[in-house]
Amino acid sequence: MKVSMRDRLIDAATELFYASGIRAVSVDRVIERAGTTKVTFYRHFTSKDDLVVAHLERRAQQERDGVGAAIELAGGDAERTFELIAGTLGSMACEPGFRGCPFINAAAEYPDRDSGVRQAVDRHRAWCKATYAQVIEPLHLPDPEGVATDLMLLRDGAMVAGYLDGEAALAASYLRSARALIRPVGATSR
User: Fold this and answer.
1) Which of 57, 96, 114, 115 falls 20 to 30 Å from 122 in CA-CA distance?
2) Does the reported pTM lie above 0.85?
3) What DSSP line would sit under the chain, residue for residue?
C-alpha cells in the first residue's frame, strides 16, 4: 500500500516530535526525514502548528482505537475494561523511547489555550473523559462525572509515571487505583 506524502510527513513528525519534543524539531528536519521539499510540505500544511495538530489527531485516533478495542473486548464490564487499559499502559511504558503522553507533552510546549494545538489536546481529553463516563455509566456510581474526572487524572498520572518511573508497577498501580474509583465501598475484589 502506497503511503501518501501527507501521511509520510505526519509519520516523520510523529517520530521526531515524540523523540525530541515539538519545539525542538524544525519543519526542515521533518521535511528531510520525510524525503520531500518545502513546497510539498506547504501544499499539505499551512504551518508547523498545522502539522502538530495532524500529529496529535493521529495519536488521538490511535488511543481511541485502543480504548475502543478494550471496551469491545470487555463486553460492557467496566472493571475488565480498566484491566485491559492497565495492561496497555504497562506495555506502552516498556516500549523503547517511551516519553509519556504526547498530549501532556504538547500542552507543556503550547501554553496558549487558544492555539490550535491546545484545542486538539483539549478535544482528545474531552473524548477520554466522556469515554470513561460511558464505561462507568452502568455502575450507577453516585458521582459519575467526578469519577470520570478522577479516571482522567489517573490516566495522566500513569502516563507521567510510566515515563519517569518505568513500567514495573505501572499497570498494577493503575488498576488498583481504577478499581478503588469504580467499586462501591465494601465491594469485594475479583
Assistant:
1) 96
2) yes
3) -PPPHHHHHHHHHHHHHHHH-TTTS-HHHHHHHHT--HHHHHHH-SSHHHHHHHHHHHHHHHHHHHHHHHHHHHTT-HHHHHHHHHHHHHHHHHSTT--S-HHHHHHHH---TTSHHHHHHHHHHHHHHHHHHHHHGGG--S-HHHHHHHHHHHHHHHHHHHHHT-STTHHHHHHHHHHHHHSPTTPPP-
